[in-house]
Amino acid sequence: MANNIVMSEEQFSRLLESITSTSQNANDEHIDRLAQSIASASIHSAEIYLFIYLSQIAFAKCTFRFDGQRSYEKVEEFINGITTFKKIEDINDKDAVEGLALLFTGTAATWWQGVKSEAKTWDLALKLIRQAFAPKKLPHDVYMELFATKQRDHEPIDEFLCNKRALLAQLPAKRHKEEEQLDLIYGLLNISIRKNVPRTEIKTFTDLLEKARHIEHIQREMEPTVQARVEIKRCTYCGKRGHLQKECRKFKADSIKAPAENTENTIKCYGCGAPGVYRSTCSTCKNKETPPKPVSFYAVHSTLQTSTKIPTIEVSIKGEKGYAHIDTAARTSIASRQLYNTLIRHGTNFIQRPADITLADGTTKTTNLLTTTIDIVIGGRILPITLAVIPEASENRTLLGIDFLETSGIVLNLPQRTWHFIDKPNVHFNFLQLKNEAIPLKTIKRLSFEEPKEELKSISESYSDFMKTHCASEECIP
């Protein structure tokens, strides 16, 4: 005999309200029977009718859920699942729309609370889901995504074709026939498949899958043999097979026995070979000077004696030898006054160009530079160099700027006081070790550095004569 329960009228009313509120379209017959069973205190009968009632609620037993992920594939998977379930369970459109709330979680549940009043029909509800979480792509976007990637090595043909055909399905209906779709996808296949399966032998996607799967099966059978060959190891320390140097027991044992060498002992002076020092700090080579010799162009007037020597290279221009400083802070190579006079004597043409010059103190000055491109002999090579001349400068140096260093491929090794060409790293050239003193200039017959006895022309007249005589084109005329 069933057990009886006692419940007040207030409790009974509250229970009926909670059951009724679960669905606006609840089955009245089941509600009445459930209420009568509770009123008669028959728990067993109440449980039976409650189970029958809940089973009639739309999508109560559906296992599909959607959390609001913005993915075309996920949205279509969800819509196809619930549409099939609705058809099998024979749920009418009105109940299906009401039951959708049971299938949404997370972001989708929050979104549905705001738009459920707009979903008057089942088709409209599905349209709202697609618009919110899988907006339809434009055809040109589909094509761009289609051709963005090709089939990777070891990517299964089934997975590749599945993804590509899913993209083509987003195009307007009947946009491409199957043969046209094959033309679009065939060029994206892996080279191993295209090599063995000509396009002319494929009429449908079924043909492509059958032939491509056969090729993949053969490749999988060949892979173990190829991998076995690749996995053969040889130690570079002991010469034995089967392991690498980092796994070699002999190498580890010898490393423990050998004393740890100080990294400083691996450093040596490039000049004299003294261990543990760079050439710039070597007591033997530090104060070793390069004997000066007469040159055609050079200028240095600082008499401050310091331990640091300016990187200087011997060069040759127009057959005249001279010294040039390395200046990585100069973007343009500069010709000294002596080199400028040498070039004038050899008939070099210059072009006048306005330029802004930043001085050492940071100030900017606008002036007219004279530029020319000539050949320079450095390190046994003949290289082109563009030199700029500051007309008003009289005691400046010849500088090899960063423009020439980059184009000629010169690499500086300042600690060892050497330099080399980037394509010849083993051939080193030494920087000159010059004292900060005046360097004797060659005696030049055609040019005199002494002040002439006759009256000098004015600066403007001299400049005008130079421009008429040596400029190469009309660009020189200010």
Automatic annotation (TrEMBL):
Asked whether the keyword Flavoprotein is assigned, the reply is: no
UniProt domain CCHC-type: residue ranges = 234-250
Keyword Metal-binding on this protein?
yes
UniProt KW keywords? Metal-binding, Zinc, Zinc-finger
Protein name per the record: CCHC-type domain-containing protein
Q: Which organism is it from?
A: Loxostege sticticalis
Organism lineage: Eukaryota, Metazoa, Ecdysozoa, Arthropoda, Hexapoda
